[in-house]
Amino acid sequence: MDEKRKLLQKRVLKTAILSSITFKDSMPGTSVRRDMLLFEVDFYEQQFGTDDNSLKIIADKMKTTFNDLKKLNIRSTSSVCSIYNFNSVSGDFKRCGGRITGPVISFVTTIGAIAFSVKFQVQMINICYDEALRIIAAQQNILSGKPM
What we know:
This protein is mainly α. Helices cover 73% and strands 0% of the residues. It has one domain (2-16, 27-143). The two termini are 21 Å apart.
């Protein structure tokens, strides 16, 4: 899991730059592409096995329900949650951007967008990683006869 986390973190800067220099479907008030970042979140979920499809398979193998598994505080699987996290972090970006007065140089805007994108991606990788660890712990508890 730790190695997977490190590998995913290597994607962050490249995705941050790409999502910040293209303006299609950018978030209002930022120059960050929402679709690219949400695609990355989906990818992180799949890699850590915290997407809905993976969780349903895991729940079946654990002989429990999908809803019981979600009680482990699995937050990344809901697109509403992902959008909530996106909007929460983007609020930080907008507040920082709100302090810039006078003519805004596109370079400065792009640097801010890259910083926002990096922060968002790292936050989502950490959420997915933590969720995967909770799922592993629950699986080990069931194998040893302890309740989830």
